[in-house]
Automatic annotation (TrEMBL):
Taxonomic lineage: Bacteria, Pseudomonadati, Pseudomonadota, Betaproteobacteria, Burkholderiales
Domain of life: Bacteria
UniProt organism field: Yanghanlia caeni
PANTHER family reported in the protein's UniProt record: GLUTAMATE--CYSTEINE LIGASE
Pathway: Sulfur metabolism; glutathione biosynthesis; glutathione from L-cysteine and L-glutamate: step 1/2
Protein name in the entry: Glutamate--cysteine ligase
First-level EC class: ligase
Residue ranges of domain Glutamate--cysteine ligase in the record: 12-364
Entry keyword set: ATP-binding, Glutathione biosynthesis, Ligase, Nucleotide-binding
Reactions catalysed, as given in the entry: L-cysteine + L-glutamate + ATP = gamma-L-glutamyl-L-cysteine + ADP + phosphate + H(+)
The family this protein is said to belong to: Belongs to the glutamate--cysteine ligase type 1 family. Type 1 subfamily.
Ligase keyword on record: yes
Amino acid sequence: MSSPPNRLARAQHESGLLNALQRGIEKEGLRVDLQGRLARTPHPPALGSALTNPRITTDYSEALLELITGTHPSVESLLQELEETHRFVARNLDGELIWNQSMPAELPPEEEIPIGWYGTSNSGMLKHVYRRGLAYRYGKNMQCIAGLHYNFSVPDPIWDHIGIEGISLEHQRTKGYLALIRNFTRYSWLLMYLFGASPAVSRAFLGDRPHSLHDFDAETLYLPWATSLRMSDLGYQNKAQSDLELCYNDLETFLQRMYTAVTTPWPAYERIGTHRNGEWIQLNTNILQIENEYYSAIRPKRSTNRGERPATALAERGVEYIEVRCLDIDPWSPVGIRAESCRFIDAFLLYCAAEPSPFFPANGDCPISKNNFATVVREGRKPGLLLRRGENEISLRDWGEEIIECIRPYAELLDQAAGHQRHVAALELQLKKIRNTELTPSARVLHAMRERQATLHNFTLQLSREHHETLVQGPLEPELEQRYKDEAAASIREQHEIEAADTEPFDEYVARFHAALRAP
């Protein structure tokens, strides 16, 4: 049988299959004041309802904006929409900026960090109470960390061409995306090396928590070889989740383990309880309140119907696309990511989808892959760093160069489909980073801070101000701006309609929400 790249090349020649790849972005960013302090103001009304506006919402904190694109067949149209949304938001932030760094701005005492508010409807209160639970479980500071999520899907016929077998299209698609996720798990350390941009953190962010970081200056802590402290145990600590081994050999096992986590009590959360002073403070006392609480670098996803649980949707209709969740905000891009990064990620994910992807053996490659990931986020730029590959060790540089060359045929195919050479050019940029650690974003952040003699706070504040001016001064067609305004106004009306139509007591609504989770 011919190789996956050759089969895809024939498919592209016959049907233009690769032109039907789809990608979308969900980009987070804290609202801060002009001094870089966390905004205490409510979500700006000009941006619409955080509950119902499909483009502009919030994640954890009331100040943590989340800007969402639709799905796009090209990187150009994807980033055009993302930039247009950023321009509209920037024009409607009164004396505020978007903080363009994954690690948070200057935060107030935890009790003063506002949790996202979505109105008084049952669905809005469910979102709010879930976030209250996150505050009690992990602390509010951690929930102010920002990232960029990259959604990716391939056209259904691609699974035939790369040899994924299934008794139905749904099963074929699900098996294909799980194979992609397994390969992603093996190689995702490379993304952290290439795109990690959070090697430092504000001293105030950690407070009294124990750590092994070094002093960068009076206000900043760092690790000298780190790539992404956001994705280290400093960013995402959760003892309750530490035993979850979701290594994606099959959907049934994944769903069973997720179901167990969402229905099994955890002693520390039982001590917190679900109510305090007569108010809900978390949705339940289980390992996870809901499926989305599971922190992971990648997720299998399926669009849900109103009121439908994510796990139920996956169980009934299979995997529809994947969501890459480990990308840091690019501090030098006004929208948090560059076109060349998107093109490399597309080629990387196509490689993960098409190449053979063996199951993880019990206690085998999956823990090794997670350890490689953890090593790279904390010391990925360390000279001569060794990673585990099977039973052997290999240098990050040698393995990185090997992977780049394996991805090259897929980048070439994407260039042939698009009629340019930008995917291969993006690949060459990443190869330079592998050969010279000083070109990585994490090294550049530390170098720029040293060169400017700036704290992380002051360095990020300067960049955020510059990006704000770029966005405000950039063009936004009057018709497009009016469409954003109309969508914002419509979303507020929709929220009011939902609130007016609610008659069910919230306690009953929560009970029905939990009951909607079906055992696999």
